[in-house]
From TrEMBL:
Active-site residue numbers: E46, K113, C149
UniProt: ATP binding residues: G290, L291, S292, G293, G294, I295, D296, S297, T397
GO cellular component: cytoplasm
Protein's recorded name: Glutamine-dependent NAD(+) synthetase
């Protein structure tokens, strides 16, 4: 006798630390899945109750009390559907990354995550003890196993579940985005499904959490490793999957999986989600940024408007003597096109006042980058004043290439609360601008901004490549050094000029102190400047092998 099973994947945007609010979301989603989608089971992401990653909130003494209260509410208020939900759990002075199966007021089973990631952005061994046992529970006659995120990347939990009699795997996840991540997930899901001879229902959360962006991509892979269903990326949804159990195995109903976005589309959406949620979850009224007429601030403005709406975005042009007329024209054109609040605040009076005050100190000393940095710091001061007065978040506009080598001014253009392009290399900035202009809404970013040679405009005739290697060369060197940890000699062996490599790597190392003080920004590569790259500021390490 066959048995049908409808599992709804709750691809939700949860808030870290808001246990009460997250429980409300769980109850609302469960009732909706039961009544509107006729679901038998609803599957939630990893650590749903507290949000992911909770970091040192887990160490708060009241965390366990709040989790216990949340679980009681779920048992008391939800009937007629199986809930599979993640949460942290303290038992015998050991903390576990747990998942519960709850139905009609009863806690039917508990699973403890076995594989604890401790690399890149993950540090779960700081908080959790690993589980040891499989969890297989009967749901409407179907033997169903539960696993949590990293478990699916290793063969042992699947093999253990199979040995315990499971015929279906439910996987709870909080897997953050980086380039090509969904393809990696689906390849490993296919491998595990074939190894276990059972389908995998995989739910992932969406939304921004500080520097992490979660892209969703909840999906179902059948026992042969085929992706049968996939939810829309980056969007909240309750996504149903229909399965049939015939007593010997579980078959998945084939549908048309939502398409995977191309690289530029996926990165752009990640940036939009990162800005939207950082602003919303931290209670800012809107954002303000310096619009210079250059490509980085132009892309940042476009992302901000797409994330928040033009009415919550303010752009400020702050010209000085070296600001080109082209920059003034292009900045105004983009601001008018997007419909944001726009104003021009010349900084010459402020810079000259600083210079006059410093004249006795600088007597006998020639001009250098000090005067350039004063311009940037005057701009930073203006933006922070607007932020204080209006309750807006300052968006900084430095890209990964510049931040890597310190081509930015501490307390100047680095002053702010969120750097949209912090993990976006300059070459990708150009591609994202072309992508945004291709969406059929006209020339959002003026083509002249894309075509002109990049310049900080802090000195007459200044161009970025006067101080830096060409960006295609620079970005490849940075990728090998930052994302893959290759040595200077190994990068040189790839065919790059030796002097250029050593100079770039030395700049990266010297400017660690700047990056420690930089604004947070969304991570889109495998190794951003944030929680997954931790190098000492003070170091005697020498470049070489």
């Amino acid at each position: 006798m066959s048995q049908t099973l409808r599992v709804v994947m709750a691809q939700l945007n949860l808030r870290v630390g808001d246990i009460h609010g997250n429980v409300e979301r769980i109850i609302e989603a469960a009732i909706s899945a039961r009544d509107q989608r006729q679901a038998d089971v609803i599957l939630f992401p990893e650590l749903t109750l507290c949000g992911y990653p909770p970091e040192d909130l887990l160490l708060r003494s009241s965390m366990q009390l709040r989790i216990e209260a949340g679980l009681r509410r779920l048992r008391d208020e939800v009937r007629g559907i199986y809930l599979v939900v993640g949460y942290p759990w303290l038992e015998d002075d050991k903390r576990y990354n747990a998942a519960a199966v709850i139905a009609d007021g009863e806690l039917l089973a508990t699973y403890y995550k076995q594989q604890l990631p401790n690399y890149r952005v993950f540090d779960e061994k700081r908080y959790f003890e690993p589980g040891q046992e499989a969890c297989v529970v009967d749901i409407k006659g179907v033997p169903v196993a539960v696993s949590i995120c990293e478990d699916i990347w290793f063969p042992e939990p699947m093999a253990q579940a199979r040995e315990a009699g499971a015929q279906l795997m439910l996987s709870l996840n909080a897997s953050p985005f980086h380039l090509d991540k969904q393809r990696e997930r689906e390849e490993i899901l296919a491998q595990r499904a074939r190894e276990g001879g059972m389908p995998v229902v995989y739910v992932n959360q969406v939304g921004g959490q500080d520097e992490l962006v979660f892209d969703g991509g909840s999906c179902v892979v059948d026992a042969d490793g085929r992706v049968c269903q996939r939810a829309q990326m980056y969007e909240e949804c309750l996504f149903p999957a229909d399965l049939r159990w015939d007593g010997t195995g579980v078959a998945v109903h084939q549908s048309h999986p939502a398409p995977l976005p191309e690289l530029e589309a996926s990165v752009y959406q990640a940036l939009v989600v990162g800005v939207r949620d950082y602003v919303a979850k931290n209670g800012f009224k809107g954002v303000v940024l310096g619009l210079s007429g250059g490509i980085d601030s132009a892309l940042t403005l476009a992302v901000a408007v797409d994330a928040l709406g033009a009415e919550r975005v303010e752009a400020v042009m702050m010209p000085y003597h070296y600001t080109a007329q082209m920059s003034l024209e292009d900045a105004e054109q983009q601001a008018r096109t997007l419909g944001v609040t726009y104003r021009v605040l010349p900084i010459a009076p402020m810079v000259e006042a600083f210079m006059a005050g410093l004249a006795p100190v600088f007597a006998g000393l020639g001009r250098d980058t000090t005067e350039e940095n004063l311009q940037a710091r005057c701009r930073g001061t203006l933006l922070m004043a607007i932020s204080n007065k209006k309750g807006s978040l300052v968006l900084t506009t430095g890209n990964k290439s510049e931040v890597a080598v310190g081509y930015c001014t501490l307390y100047g253009d680095m002053a702010g609360g969120f750097d949209v392009l912090k993990d976006v290399p300059k070459t990708l900035v150009f591609r994202l601008c072309e992508y945004r202009n291709s969406l059929g809404q006209g020339e959002i970013i003026p083509q002249r901004v894309i075509d002109r040679p990049p310049s900080a405009e802090l000195a007459p005739g200044q161009k970025d490549e006067d101080s830096l290697p060409p960006y295609p060369v620079l970005d490849e060197i940075l990728k090998l050094y930052i994302e893959y940890d290759l040595s200077a000699n190994a990068i040189i062996a790839e065919g790059f000029d030796a002097d250029t490599v050593r100079r770039v790597l030395r700049l990266v190392d010297l400017n660690e102190y700047k990056r420690r003080q930089a604004a947070v920004g969304p991570r889109i590569t495998q190794r951003g400047f944030g929680r997954d790259r931790r190098y000492p500021i003070t170091s005697g390490w020498r470049l070489g092998d």
